[in-house]
Predict the 3D structure of the following.
Amino acid sequence: MSQDIATIRVTRYRPEKDGKPFFQEYKVPYRKDMVVLDALNYIKANLDGTLTYRWSCRMGVCGSCGANVDGVPKLTCASFLHEFKGRTIKVEPLPHFPVIKDLVINMDDFMHKLVEIKPWIIRDKESPPEDGEYRQSAEELERYGQFSSCINCMLCYSACPVYGLNEKFLGPAATALAYRYIEDSRDQGKAVRFPIVHEIEGVWECTLVGECSVVCPKGVDPMLAIQKTKILGATNALKSLVMPRGGGK
Amino acid sequence: MIIGGGAAGLRAAIAAAELNPKLDIAIVSKVYPMRSHTVSAEGGMAAVLRTDYDNFDLHAYDTIKGSDFLADQDTVEFFVREAPKEAVRLEHWGCPFSRDPDGRISVRAFGGMSVKRTLFATDKIGFHLLHSLFQTSLKFENIRRYDEWFATSILVENGRVDGVTAIDMRSGDLVSFLAKAVVIATGGCGRIYQFTTNGWIKTGDGMALAYRAGVPLKDMEMVQYHPTLLPNTGILITEAARGEGGHLLNKDGERFLKRYVPNKMELGPRDILSRAEMTEIKEGRGFEGPYGSYVHLDLTHLGEETIEAKLPFVKELAEKYLGIDPAHEMIPVRPGQHYMMGGVHTDIHGYTGLPGLYAAGEVACISMNGANRLGSNSLTECLVFGAEAGIGAAQYATKQAALSFGNPVQGLALEEEKRIYDKVLKPEQGEKISTIRTEMQKAMEEHVGIYRDENNLKQACRLIGDLKKRMKNAVVEDKDRVYNTDLVSALELDFMLDVAETIPYAALARKESRGAHSRTDYPKRDDDQFLKHLVVYQTGTVPRIETMPVTITRWKPEARVY
């Protein structure tokens, strides 16, 4: 297979040495089926062992290898080098996150938000495994299915202009996951989760830019989750006004 | 303390937390738990839920026959009985299983299973299982996580476990943890091979940790090669593609499996299918491509709708990484390393024999997979024996008196600090880590592959032995403390070399062919001499091999014909 040479400009930031980030350029020979992550691995193995980034599965499911590729948040394992033929490829850490080193971002904020939305099935009463599975129809599965496909890759937070300005905003992935549990027919925790997603920095901060849904590598539509959560919230609020003694679900 | 945050580790943590809410449970993982390699499992997880046509004995028999009778049958019997409970627990914890019209969890056919018993969530069961377990684990306040901490050694004092040393990758500090009980759940070691489905993180850390702590590794010669990997990347195309009706074809367009497993065809076990592909290729009936020889996986007759509904990830992977639409074009595939049947020796409860040390999941050899694992048994294994190890560790820890950080634990920790910072990180000159790693992978690929013989195995022993010596003079280029992946890679490679070495040594000792272990110089199974486990101990020089009996309960070894 024929080989071309890609020019990669990677953000370097080593907190023990550098006051601020800078770009370093590398030349990488590549074939048609190579991705940006392969180029980073080539650099690490052959040119510069100090280059630092996260990765594992190389098949778009572990969610580790996100970076800003040519200005767009992407999984580096799913960005093909030939798409940038003839141009320098800029690879930067995902925006809106503090940087630990080179391309490695600090995602503590999301990890806290994930716990806040209580991402587990809440039941009034657990039934023992001997009683068998909870039944769920294909339609019930469909209602939350796509939102359970979030791989926590953080691309949506990088694309979200609201999160860029206000890190308290619950944001796309966490809301999609909250909605995933709210809509799961097995879950009975709506009452607990609603106040969390509807508080000041919850869904109402979203300005409907929709970039989150555009960059999601797994076809999740976090903006839709945010919209649906708003509607559910509004309906519930109305119901509690009209039927204050528990007309709501 | 649990090392590893994949399916087995998380299940162990939850089991321990439920057993004793007063225990302080830690998960130390070199990646955020949801990045663990469990995430890549695709096809499904096996459990007998359809009792109208299925039963425990049938699942046990399939598993034992699949193992070429090297599985411990008491372990398998325990496994099949626990499997449905674990599957239902996982469902109760939110796993979005695919459903039948009546709302029950759907089941599909899988290789070596005589009936449909593989539960699935489209073709992303590993991803959904991992996230469901991880998110469920977040509700337990007594599970404390150390994400992106790399465990470097098990501290052993007076013949029992006292703790673990680990590097906090963000600060670069080495920290000693006191722990009354430790569960190793770090998964496999596929990255010792060149062509593998395994993620970058699968470097056999836990196998090496236990091996260095004096625990033997068992059945290490039993390496599973999966028959359907994409030839350029090693990306796995799930067995579910065949479970849903996909065909394997040679270059004559022939379903060649009729010559190898006529009764099972594409649903034959992985070891036999991988060998069949190699034979087709060797006899000139494969395709030649830029990445070597391959055969075809044909899904075109399944139709767009089935592929979309049941195999969306296969479609995504084929489209993205090959530019192929599997509804209309053939997928090129070839066999490659996928799974380790062997691992840290444990008893039926996941106990290693070293007081305080447990292991579960792929890292362990609890002897339920024997010489060949059946597809979709491994995730269930992680749940069943993750829980068992978690409970065992929690019960043991509950009974132990408080530990103190005195000598000699402190001395061990200081020694470990010297090893990492003075011997591994400090040297300014030496050989590149990536060179040694590539040579190890090449040696394993060429000499310890699907077909083995004495010359090749001896060559592998020599090559790995040399690489171990060269490793002592390797250089870590990155000298920073903060998030030093170069240092971690060096420590991982050091682990991998220890683990890799055990494979050709064990393979040399097993002078027969059984399951995934195929010796061209000893092509037959030899129950008289080798119906036993091989266990490998670390010594100052070459590994020492001993044997252990195989437990047979109700199924006498028979010819393995499909």
Summary: Residues 485-509 of chain B form the longest helix (25 residues).
